[in-house]
Design a protein that fits this description.
- This protein has helices spanning about 40-55, 60-75, 80-105, 110-125, 125-145, 145-170; strands spanning about 5-10, 15, 25, 35.
- With about 180 residues, the chain is mainly alpha-helical.
- The protein has a domain at about 35-155.
- A two-stranded antiparallel ribbon has the order 1-2.
- A hairpin with an 8-residue loop joins β3 (about 25) and β4 (about 35).
- The protein is extended.
Length: about 180
């Protein structure tokens, strides 16, 4: 079954019309489709994976899930959004672990005490996994064009700053010296 639709042109000829392509695009070689995530999507995937792994809470599972999700997010994120993804893993890891610990502490006798003991303990014991996920994310992002994306982002910010300065330097009030 073809994904192209036929449309009649004037004169009776049929022309192929390409369907609208969403976030899944097909490579030119006719290979498998590729998925590209925005920065928000990558952070959401990272959070969901981290939270699911933290809920599992069985030996090495939370850390391993975090590393795998970091690698997958770094591979699937659009190159323009890599600067956001590189700084996100530590914050997302903290929030995912915090939410999982809050859920675990709900049934305890002392909610605050349970949370104050369990959260730092989990963060300390899983610090190597956090470091591994963050370093792998940065390494993959560097290979995929992080420096170029960072340079473009800096140029955009400089252009915005220069434009803003130009408009603030102009005197908005024009005084006519008529007497």
């Amino acid at each position: 079954m073809s994904t192209e639709t036929q449309e009649k042109k004037p004169g009776g000829r049929k022309a192929a019309r390409k369907p609208a392509v969403g976030p899944v695009s097909r490579p030119k070689g006719g290979g498998r489709p590729t998925v590209s995530l925005t920065a928000r999507g990558a952070v959401a995937v990272l959070f969901a994976g981290t939270f699911a792994g933290a809920l599992a809470d069985f030996a090495f599972v939370p850390g391993a899930v975090f590393v795998v999700v970091c690698v997958l997010a770094a591979l699937a994120t659009r190159p323009d959004d890599l600067p956001v993804l590189v700084v996100a893993p530590p914050v997302v890891y903290l929030l995912g672990t915090l939410l999982a610990e809050i859920i675990d502490a709900v049934g305890e006798r002392s909610f605050v005490q349970s949370l104050l003991v369990a959260l730092p303990l989990d963060l300390a014991t899983r610090a190597p996994w956090l470091l591994a996920g963050t370093v792998l994310t940065a390494a993959i992002a560097l290979r995929r064009g992080l420096l170029t994306a960072w340079r473009e982002l800096t140029l955009k910010a400089d252009g915005f700053r220069l434009t803003r300065e130009r408009y603030t330097e102009e005197d908005p009030v024009r005084w006519d010296e008529r007497t």
